[in-house]
Design a protein that fits this description.
Blueprint (H helix, E strand, L loop, with lengths): L2 H17 L16 E5 L6 H17 L3 E5 L6 H9 L6 E5 L1 H10 L10 E17 L7 H10 L5 E4 L2 H14 L4 E4 L3 H10 L4 E5 H9 L3 E6 L25 E9 L4 H15 L2 H11 L1 E7 H22 L5
Parallel strand pairs: 1-2, 1-3, 5-6, 5-7
Antiparallel strand pairs: 3-9, 4-7, 4-8, 4-9, 4-10
Helix pairs in contact: 2-9, 2-10, 4-11
Length: 326
């Protein structure tokens, strides 16, 4: 081929290359370009709020944008969920999710204004233990004492609960232990703690992190922790399993999600950043020393499997005890 012909062909190829449009950019390439919003369905200062603020700061640094935390408590997390779903599905609004929003609300509320499928799980963050406690002046020195009293006089031992999660956990406990307790609903943990100390109620299931200050002050007495193994902050307190109720387990997890309509490349970018944050030594140290919790750091798909499993387990309890929204 003559040099002049070759030159013309090369020139034509270069011109065509210049005229061809560039491949479209991924939806996640320029994300985020403004601050992120983390929505918490609880009041400021709660353990879950503290965890979310710590994670939000790490994610913001990783993605190069500020991350603000907005507390939207009330209506059994429904207000916060609607805040997420009413916002544009662009990944800029991220919801802290828990069993309340994803598992229990759909089981007990037949007028729920959302479907849990509307939320795409991103990452499971932590799993916290619960502890069965009584007042410092209570006659119950051990969980064995509780079992004996409840079997001797059914419905006389009272168990306070301040959420559907703990109500169902208490129902499962009595079912597996073969006892009948007197379940008393409360609106919040603070009043439960006050009534425990005053002897107005016998027992309660509380977050370990929330109960620790009163346990250390000697104002409450721990009877058993609800996880498979003993809690590192309560090494002398046996598990419910050790105390005679085989296979019992109750824990509280939190994680993060976005609207299921969020473009998948953006959801994947957020998921990767969250998992990176949850895997840092800074977060693991925070979870152990401040939240007293186990770090999960599980991706959205694995979190979805966990949620589905819990729906089956709690669904059986809801049917057995006919639990519904009060």
């Amino acid at each position: 081929m003559k040099r002049s012909t070759l030159s013309r062909l090369l020139g034509l190829g270069l011109a065509c290359a210049i005229l061809l449009p560039a491949p479209p950019a991924s939806a996640a390439d320029n994300f985020p370009s403004r601050p992120l919003r983390f929505i918490v369905p609880l009041t400021q200062g709660s353990g879950s709020d503290s965890v979310t603020r710590f994670v939000a700061e790490l994610v913001g640094k990783d993605l190069g944008q500020a991350a603000v935390v907005e507390n939207r408590p009330g209506a059994d997390t429904i207000i916060a969920v609607q805040s997420l779903l009413n916002a544009p599905a662009d990944g800029y609004s991220i919801l802290m999710i828990s069993p309340s929003a994803m598992v229990i609300n759909p089981l007990v509320n037949d007028k729920l204004p959302y479907n849990p499928r509307d939320i795409r799980p991103l990452a499971a963050a932590i799993r916290a233990s619960a502890v069965l406690v009584t007042g410092a002046n209570s006659p119950y020195k051990s969980f064995a004492d509780v079992l004996a009293a409840a079997r001797r006089k059914p419905h006389t031992v009272s168990l306070a609960n301040y959420s559907y999660h703990y109500r169902l956990g208490g129902l499962q406990l009595q079912q597996m232990a073969g006892i009948d307790l007197n379940h008393i609903p409360y609106k919040g943990a603070a009043q439960v703690q006050t009534d425990l100390m005053g002897g107005a109620v016998d027992l309660a299931l509380l977050d370990v992190g929330g109960a620790l200050p009163l346990l250390r002050a000697g104002k409450l007495r721990p009877l058993a922790v609800t996880t498979r193994t003993r809690h590192p902050e309560l090494p002398d307190v046996p598990t419910v399993r050790e105390s005679g109720v085989a296979n019992y387990e109750l824990s509280v997890w939190i994680g993060f999600g976005v609207s299921s309509k969020t473009p998948e490349p953006i959801a994947q970018k957020l998921e990767a950043s969250l998992l990176k944050a949850l895997g840092t030594p800074e977060f693991r140290n925070f979870a152990a020393r401040t939240a007293y919790a186990e770090v999960l750091a599980e991706p959205g798909k694995q979190m979805g499997t966990m949620i589905a499993s819990e729906r089956v387990r709690y669904g059986q309890l809801v049917k057995t005890y006919d639990v519904s929204a009060r």
